[in-house]
Write a structure and sequence with these properties.
mainly alpha; 3 domains; two-stranded parallel sheet; two-stranded antiparallel sheet; globular
Length: about 725
């Protein structure tokens, strides 16, 4: 018998609730066209006073089914029969928050009735369906999920490629429209047919791993029929009879081939052919070459997001399926992964001569990331399922306490990343937001660009933490810390340059004066430099001059508070950073090439801004210390730092900036909506407090994620050393 899962006292939710919350928020707030109504208070009042519980049959069933998994997850946390009422209350609160946020989504209808039906769905899952699921779970094979994690992940990835963008609707008009489109004539697509057929072949091989031999074909048929029927109720995912034909031919090939050993080579060849046909369509080459997009994921920041998401999932599925089949053929997975990434890069290069396509670095990079994820998950999954029916517990096994959230901060970092992305996407569309913030991101504030920007904010804390941890394991530690801090700065530069517009980046780093001076000189040197990416190199150097001071101060603060580095070693680190910081000061202020730094910073105000960085980085390091410390010193330091940071900001910025006929302060430029509408000092202070707390919390969360990565890297190195010995 499978023992009942243990419940963590004091915590009614777990990682499954976090995943469900992300999926529910995605389905509730889609398509993310946030626009605040003219009268938000009146819209909220209308939502709360609308008394009709029954809206429409499809809407009621959809809201009820949306929260049934939440109730199941709540019931599965404790022993059979235990009622987790706190999780029920939190689910209702989360549903209410989602409805309030729908007020800012014009294409959605916010109503309190949806919260009621969400609560009914939680009760159905928690009190009606949970007992049956618990009985099935108790009778199931104990290690099924562990032994088949990779196969289940690949099956879920295939399902995601078929059902994106994952927005179901039980509207009868939508179902009838999809039915008409399904039967209508359409142009034949060889690439789509090959993709569907190869996908079913690979899925058939995966199902043969998950199900017994006599149940594999029926299970595959049920899955394919369920996907086709399910696509009829999914928004922006209309099926066609051509898709059904490709799935049917793939199923017929699986039935004819029969055994897994026969399916694997055919599926591998079909998947590689489908990948090639999809990347080279419409097969009309030109003699004139076009450009190549070197910025990763830039193609996903514009256009139809549903199509971009489907393309991303399709590339990940093809790469993962090819690696799965190669592993089944006893091929070397690392070599096949290198081949797939190289082949994808060659196909993108070939698209340079396809006028209807745009060559991009994103597909090869997506294949590389999918290959890394596959190999990491494959190492955790046994090659063959276990045959034992029960595991024998180890004798005298010590009772280990449950890990705290700060010891495993990855779920918190993921939740913070997604939540901050959604919040910032909503905030920049509010009236009265500073114009320089609205114009900051690529694609007019596209959620994908904001996600990269938030990831850069988290990396501001994770990068120095990783650099310090790795440097302390090397000799000499001080120079290695400076070098690794520069590497972390390059990563931050890449993340920001991929998410922030070119004009906004120039406002911070300045123009390429050095490159212009070198390339305009006569002689051999200038001629050679004209063929090198000197402009991007100068931008990276100027960005590093801005990045290194806070990174160095954060690393030194962590060395004192967390690592307890000795005074002598700490002095060596500080002395190593001193010449770099002097050079950063010269590049940033003395050799500045942007008006924002020259005009906004007060005379001799740089020293106060550096003191502000010291206060903020010390606050981040104090907030990110392990959780077994007391909390009140962190809270007291943060509250005291708010007025101190505002005072230092006031001393560091010029209070009388004259530009374009307007006179304003540096705080007005940074925090105000524009240069003409001046805000009160109290409003500016409130905005600065929100900005300061956001930076401190994101930095602390990044440090915690960096600590978790260091622990994982050390555990991996320890396992490799023990395997060698």
């Amino acid at each position: 018998m499978l023992s009942a899962p243990k419940s963590v006292d004091g915590c009614p939710l777990d990682r499954w609730h976090l995943l469900l919350a992300v999926l529910i928020a995605y389905g509730t707030l889609y398509p993310f066209d946030f626009t605040l109504p003219p009268q938000p208070a009146q819209a909220l009042y209308d939502m709360l006073t609308r008394a009709h519980l029954w809206t429409s049959r499809g809407d009621v069933l959809g809201n009820l089914a949306l929260f049934v998994p939440w109730g199941l997850a709540s019931a599965m946390r404790g022993a059979p029969g235990r009622k987790n009422y706190l999780a029920l209350a939190l689910g209702l609160a989360f549903a209410a928050i989602m409805q309030v946020m729908q007020i800012a989504v014009p294409s959605r209808d916010a109503t309190l009735a949806d919260v009621f039906w969400n609560g009914v769905g939680i009760c159905v899952g928690q009190f009606a369906l949970a007992p049956f699921v618990q009985r099935l779970r108790a009778a199931a094979y104990p290690d099924f999920l562990h032994d088949n994690a990779l196969a289940l992940a690949l099956a879920a990835l295939w399902l995601a490629t078929q059902t994106a963008p994952f927005i179901p609707s039980l509207d009868l008009a939508l179902i009838r429209a999809h039915g008409r489109i399904f039967l209508s004539p359409a142009e034949w697509s060889l690439a789509a047919f090959a993709t569907n057929c190869a996908g079913v072949l690979a899925l058939g091989h995966i199902v043969s791993r998950l199900a017994p031999a006599r149940m594999a074909l029926p299970a595959l048929a049920i899955a394919l029929a369920g996907v086709l029927c399910g696509r009829l109720i999914i928004v922006d995912n209309t099926p066609h009879w051509h898709d059904a034909l490709g799935l049917a031919v793939g199923y017929a090939l699986v039935a004819v081939l029969g055994e897994k050993q026969r399916i694997a080579p055919v599926a591998f060849a079909a998947m590689l052919l489908a990948m090639t046909l999809a990347e080279l369509r419409p097969y009309q080459f030109s003699s004139q070459a076009s450009g190549f997009g070197w910025i990763p994921f830039a193609g996903y920041l514009s256009g139809n997001m549903a199509l971009n998401l489907r393309e991303l999932l399709e590339i990940s599925w093809q790469c993962a399926a090819l690696l799965w089949l190669a592993h089944a053929l006893n091929a070397r997975v690392q070599g096949i992964a290198i081949f797939i990434v190289s082949w994808s890069l060659l196909l993108e290069i070939a698209q340079i001569w396809l006028p209807a396509r745009s060559a991009d670095l994103t597909p090869p990079l997506t294949c590389a990331l999918a290959a890394l994820a596959f190999m990491r998950l494959a190492r955790r999954t046994p090659s063959q399922p276990k045959t034992e029916t029960a595991s024998i517990p180890a004798r005298n096994a010590p009772d280990c306490p449950a890990p705290t959230a700060w010891q495993h901060p990855l779920p918190w970092a993921l939740a913070g990343w997604l939540g901050a992305t959604a919040l910032l996407t909503w905030l920049i569309r509010l009236p009265g937001v500073p114009y320089n913030l609205r114009e900051l991101f690529v694609g007019g504030g596209h959620p994908a660009a904001i996600a990269l920007f938030v990831l850069a904010l988290l990396w501001l804390g994770a990068g120095p933490r990783l650099a310090l941890d790795r440097a302390l394991k090397m000799r000499p530690a001080a120079p290695m810390l400076a070098a690794l801090a520069c590497v972390a700065g390059i990563v931050t530069f890449w993340l920001l340059s991929s998410s922030v517009t070119y004009e906004s980046f120039l406002d911070v780093t300045g123009s390429a004066d050095w490159t212009r001076a070198l390339t305009e000189t006569d002689g051999r040197g200038g001629g050679i430099l004209r063929h090198l990416p000197m402009t991007r190199l100068e931008r990276a150097i100027r960005f590093l001059a801005l990045y290194l001071p806070p990174a160095a101060l954060l690393a030194l603060s962590l060395a004192v508070l967390e690592f307890r580095v000795r005074a002598r070693a700490l002095a060596f680190m500080a002395l190593t950073f001193l010449p770099l910081l002097w050079l950063c000061k010269a590049i940033t202020f003395d050799w500045a090439s942007t008006d924002n730094l020259i005009e906004l910073v007060a005379p001799h105000g740089g020293i106060f801004l550096y003191l502000l960085l010291g206060v903020a980085t010390a606050n981040v390091a104090l907030m990110a210390t392990p959780a077994n410390r007391r909390y009140w010193p962190r809270l007291a330091f943060t509250l005291a730092a708010l007025p101190v940071s505002w005072w230092l900001l006031t001393l560091g910025l010029d209070q009388s900036v004259e530009k374009y006929g307007h006179v304003f302060s540096g705080q007005q430029f940074l925090l105000g909506p524009d240069r003409s509408a001046a805000l009160a000092t109290s409003v500016l202070q409130a905005r600065w407090a929100a900005l300061y707390l956001t930076l401190v919390l994101s930095g602390a969360l990044g440090v915690a994620a960096g600590r978790w990565l260091c622990v994982r890297m050390d555990d991996k190195n320890g396992r490799q050393i023990s395997d060698r010995s």
